[in-house]
Amino acid sequence: MRKILFFLILGSLLVSCGDKSNVYDNVSDIDQIKTDNETEDEGGCGPQRDDVEDKADTDTVDEVDLIEDVDLMDDKDLMEDKDLVDEDIEVVDDSDGPCPSDMVESGEICIDKYEASRSDATKSDQGTATNKAFSKPGVLPWMVNPINNTHFAEFKAACSAVGKRLCKDDEWISSCQGPDELTYSWGNTYDREICNNVDTFCDDHCSENNITECNTSSGCGYTYGCYTKVPTGSFENCTNDAGAFDINGNVWEITDAGSEYKTRGGAFNCASASSRLECTYNAGWAELYAGFRCCKDR
User: So where are the chain's domains?
Assistant: First the structure.
């Protein structure tokens, strides 16, 4: 059943870097969300605060930096908005290969094919469950804002609950770079359209709004307010050499660096995407959209 869902979802959601229309057609009613903290000093990350779980913690965010999110994903051309994985579903490995079917081989380990999602996630709602982490296409990834040690422990527990573990920092970097030690998961040359980042949809926004002199330079997403998170696996070319999706972009990914965590990969709403999507970049601030993915020893 899972395999059937995979192909149905993937067929409707995947788009190439040269044609983002299937994704952009479903980004509607976008408000201008540029705020004072979209600067280099503050991390350059626009503070969309929608269904992101924000548990009580010593890390806080000033109310003036928060804005109410709008539903950016339209139902048109996407699958029905329904739960894809039951809360209590049994995690079954139906793969005959060295890795479970929801993971891919990466050197000596297996790594989740998709950013981690909650058991009750859908294409427009990341859900609220926190007991297990799933790797599946076509749903919003598990994300928190701000990131802190409480969430770090929660991510590790969610991976452990499905027989995996949070990816170690060196494993994540190695998987992102691949055997050729690339700058990005896709290669050494930055391309704003390959993975979801703040500037990905600028040309689409201009086309839809009849803007003839379109700004597609760094930070254009802030100018037009056209950046958004997307369901897992929405960009077919945003993969590493092994076929893992969204290692760069969409949401930041927390990795296990022993007694601390690192924040890798870049995100949909952060400035200076060409540097922040680099495999070795580590975000040093807490107010960002942080997700994760799980790994497993082969």
Answer: 15-298
